[in-house]
Design a protein that fits this description.
Number of helices: 5
Helix content: 55-70%
Strand content: under 5%
Order of helices and strands: HHHHH
Number of strands: 0
Largest sheet: none
Radius of gyration: 11 Å
Distance between the termini: 25 Å
Oligomer: single chain
């Protein structure tokens, strides 16, 4: 089921690079959506998207990691 949250709304607090570049914003949205779907598992998110964990951390930002559900 697709995420109903538009990329611009979902990632409004993402890095300035994503806010000013539509393709980066869409990528950020996909990363954050999958991050939530994997219950905050950065490694699984990175594996499924073929990205490094560093890239995932950069896009989810401090706000997301601070609200990560406890295991």
């Amino acid at each position: 089921e697709p995420d109903p949250t538009p990329a611009a709304d979902c990632c409004a607090d993402c890095c300035a690079n994503c806010r000013t570049r539509p393709l980066e914003s869409e990528r950020c949205h996909r990363i954050r959506t999958l991050y939530r779907a994997t219950s905050g598992n950065v490694s699984e998110t990175a594996r499924r998207l073929g990205l490094s964990r560093t890239t995932v951390y950069r896009h989810i930002g401090d706000a997301e990691t601070a609200t990560k559900p406890a295991p």
